[in-house]
Amino acid sequence: MASRTPPAFLILGAGVIGLTTALTIQRAYPTSTITIVAKHFPGDRSIDYTSPWAGANWCSMANDNGPLEHYDRVTFSRFAEMVEQGLGEEVGIGRMGMWGVFDAKIEETGILSRGTGRVWYEELVGGLRNLDEQELPKGAVFGLDFKSTFRINTQIYLEWLQAQVLKEGIKMVRRHYPSLTSLLSSFPNTALLVNCSALGSLTLSDVKDTNLYPTRGQTVLVAEPKTPIPRMYFRSPARIDPTTTYVFPRTNGGGVILGGSRQDNDWSAEIDMELSKDIIRRCCELCPELGEPKNLQVISHNVGLRPSRKGGPRIELEKWSNGVPVVHNYGHAGAGFQSSWGTAARTLELVQKVLEPSSKL
Amino acid sequence: MSFLGGAECSTAGNPLSQFTKHVQDDKSLQRDRLVGRGPGGMQESMRSQQMSGGSDGMMNEFMQQNAQLSQGPGPASPFAMEQMRRELERAQHSGSPAWAAEFDPGMEAPAAMGPGMQERPAGFNPAEFAKFQQMNPAARTASPTVNSPQPMMGGYQRPMYGMGMGMGMGMGGMGMMQQPYAPQNFQQPMQDSGKGKGRMVELDDQDWEKQFAELEQGDQDTLDAEANKRIEAELNEMDRSVDATDFGDFESIWEGIKAETEHARQLANEENFVDGMHMGDLDQWEGFDGLNTHSVRDPPMGDYLFEQNNAFQNITNPFEEGIKIMEEGGNLSLAALAFEAAVQKDPQHVAAWVKLGESQAQNEKETPAIRALEQALKLDPSNLEALMGLAVSYTNEGYESTAYRTLERWLATKYPTLIKEPLSSDAEMGFTDRHLLHEKVTNLFIEAAQLSPTGEQMDPDVQVGLGVLFYGVEEYDKAVDCFGAALASTESGVSNSSSQVHLLWNRLGATLANSGRSEEAIDAYSRALSFRPNFVRARYNLGVSCINIGCFTEAAQHLLGALAMHKVVEKEGKERAREVVGDGVSERDLDNMIHQNQSTNLYDTLRRVFGQMGRRDLADMVGPGIDVERFRGEFEF
What residues bind D-dopa, as annotated (chain A) (predicted)? Predict the structure, then answer.
């Protein structure tokens, strides 16, 4: 009987969300068997696989005074824990300050939480200091100095996640499925499926979540200057804006990521060289430590498609027609890394809700 | 609180319950999100009323109504401990040991709970609990289990029995005092049946849409795999539900499955046929049934599976017998058998299908309940009782979008004037955005609630629907208010009628339990059981709450008690069965009457409890062939 043997979990997708969710479930159900099915795994570079293209850092975009902020908070704490345990280098996460420069009044930037009118993570990042007049670039309205947040070397971090997954005996299967139903019929013993397929849920024929849309982002990876850049930079009229400029010096030989762009509903995988040039120009203006654009060693141009979703990420339990419970965990937009542990924890709650004995109305 | 005597059961000291609370905190965050979605964005969140100055006036107004209701001194408090205490008192003063009542169904009720029940000022404070606790020793002396060798659990378990039986009898008496069961209760909403009926009947096969979907991808292999998988699933279910030696039964079901699969295949093949009809957009087909309860992700429940050896088949009026058993709080398995016989005699008997579904749901058998209620709806698409029952069952099973659509249909049937746009369907929504659907249906229910000028005149059934809606998105505090308001309502509805008020207490309990308020939940379940001691679902829920506060022995007792009720072996049940079906039935026949519809949920939960107690030996004994009597040595139930 199914309940006598440990449950068999199936996870679709091996981006940062799929891998983190697998580890979170494994921790709660150590004797379970977990299989990750995906078309792409860490190490792959494909337009269909967004995680490796991420910046990435922790700078919450949530302002809902609710679950989104909570997801980011949980993730922040997890990052902090790993760094405090001295795992930062191995994991690819490091603490770093950041200057956020805004070209609009604070009320218009979207960084204030609904209801409270405050920046909810002020204490979390060790305080926010207003940048002095002379620290602000020309034309900026105001700036905030984030005392200490996180930067992520996504290349190392994804490989680390994968290594943890392998260490825990989680199986990985590389295969593409057109629908959750066809996936489930290949794995008939599945007790529960977690759908971490991001934009894939737009095309899975039995999910077809039309609230999903891509938000294209282009970045340039450049070599690290000989004098290390002391902080991350960020400049934008608003926290989420098509013209956001950012400079994330990565840990551990990760180079420096220059960004960026936000192009909704643009599926193009082609590098827009004009855009790249513009990004480099903007970044050099924002971060004097980079020097002149002509002196930069460009390592690569990158394009990724953020899995944006109207209404925010879908973290939801749904019974499939064959009775197998499916927990969706997709649609994290540009917040995948910084909300990964929080959304995985919420996913686990839903898993427990369906697998643990529950009261009946 | 007072109920749970032993120190080890105290919530404060129990790390497990602390954990639950913690998890609960996290979930509270989710609430905003779930409600706040939709086109208007977060600012429409209910909670945001504090911050955004009431962007949703209607909702605020409604919530205030509720707030007043539950604060006021009126009957709104769901925890009428004062009432319970007095009842206990009466039960004791009556001088007749409560347990005796159980064995003498004809005995006069020691306490008539009748109409006075709802007029009690609400009392729910520590003093009341203390008083109530003091009552317990007295109750214990009235209990035959006074010499229990397990004093730790005694403080909890025995009063339950003392009270449960005493009050149960009280309710039995009440049942007789009140009007006899009024048939119009379940036959009223027939207006629309002609229109919907035809549409629905065509669609009795569970997942033909899915088959279409598969074929559209040209994936015949998947189709076969899917068919096989379904067969396998059915077989697995049979493994659980059919005695291994019962090959005759197995054979017939196997034939049934083959036929079903063949039918599905035929339907799938017809796709070629329909292809010319411009099938392009699959989404359009998903909403095709017009009744909107069936979609790709709907539960493929299939047809109701009848018991093979049903002694009720030989009696002339099985429906009336079933009603009698239900009204007297008798054994639900027996009631279900009676209703099975009734619908087998007359497959068009809508009320019998409804009652069959209701008895199975109360018997903690959700799948057969859904099957029966769906059948009732096929015959009568506007049957309010079936719609509400289904919405609850779908919610329990996690088919939430289906639950919301079913509630929408309920509302459209009862309050047609509120419906300004066509009912939701997959076709119009494309991808089912559950949050939008939830918001839409919730708003409709709020409008319906506002039709009543004051709180107490609210339609209690609207409150129940609203409670189910809030429950579905984990807004448990609001759901508690709604179920409380339904209990407080002075209007007569289905949900607060004497034949269903125990369901309402159980729903309140389940909601409290899910919001981490286990002790209050236990009180509510106890109320439910005081009305219907044989209410298996409440007994099961009691078990779950005991698990949640780490009282595994008590949990096992409740779950075993629930299973014992299923077994129809208890004295009352057997005598009753014999009384109804005559003396020609052997003990074995009685024991074997329930095969087809087992509650895997009860088995799974009990097995888990034994696992948590470190008793693999006991866990291995749990399954469809379980002999609950073998556990009597170790557990009281």
Answer: 246, 306, 334
